[in-house]
Amino acid sequence: MPGYHYVDVVREGPLTIVTINRPEVYNALSSAAHDELAEIFDAFAADDEQWVAIITGAGEKAFCAGHDLKQQAAGGGLTTPLSGFAGLTARFDLNKPVIAAVNGVAMGGGFEIALACDIVIASRSASFALPEVKVGIAALAGGLQRLPREIGLKRAMGMLLTGRRVSASEGLDLGFVNEVVDSDVLGAARRWANEILTCSPMSVRATKQAVSRGLSIPVEQAVTEQWEYLALKEMLASEDYVEGPLAFTEKRSPRWTGR
Predict the structure, then answer these.
(1) Is residue 49 annotated as a catalytic residue, yes or no?
(2) Given 197, 218, 241, which residue is the final one in a domain?
(3) Is 112 tagged catalytic?
(4) Domain residue limits at 217
């Protein structure tokens, strides 16, 4: 695995753990850090042996404070990879689950990373905001689109037009956080990942693809078209599609291969 300057990557079996490692700037992302994350998630997407990813931040203060505004102020711009902020927010073809372990502040693009993930686990001290309007920019890495879809229009506009900060507990109530923990947020994210890993990776990918595509079209159309989705076709043709019912009838745990 290649070495990175701003991000740490650890693989634990089929689980990839990605840690933004810039705690001195609250894990804000420079252009170089964006490029590293894009490369890391490219590799995760392409690796058949990697089934689930967790993304978190180094230290206890921040998950990610968004763009490195000091770089922008110095003329460095706001460039991001084609796959979006942190290589995730515009990666619309990733059918593998990604879990955000939010260990501190998730501001701007940092919150948009979490919104682009499938599951969000937050420490009790975590907080979330899209404060771009306060600094003369806008939440253009998916926040303007994902937040209304996840929590409803009026509640989203209440956050987007004021840039106000929301606690982890309020995020749970609003619905964009799955669980709040008092300590060891990464351990809690691992627990969720391990629950996913007990399931067929082929089924998980088919499920994520069908849900993601179905959100933007009528239900009748989604129910019909899901049979044409690649991940569903791959699930139906897989060894795992045979192994699951066989393991059930033999009263044993399934041995998933992801093929």
Answers:
(1) no
(2) 197
(3) yes
(4) 201-249
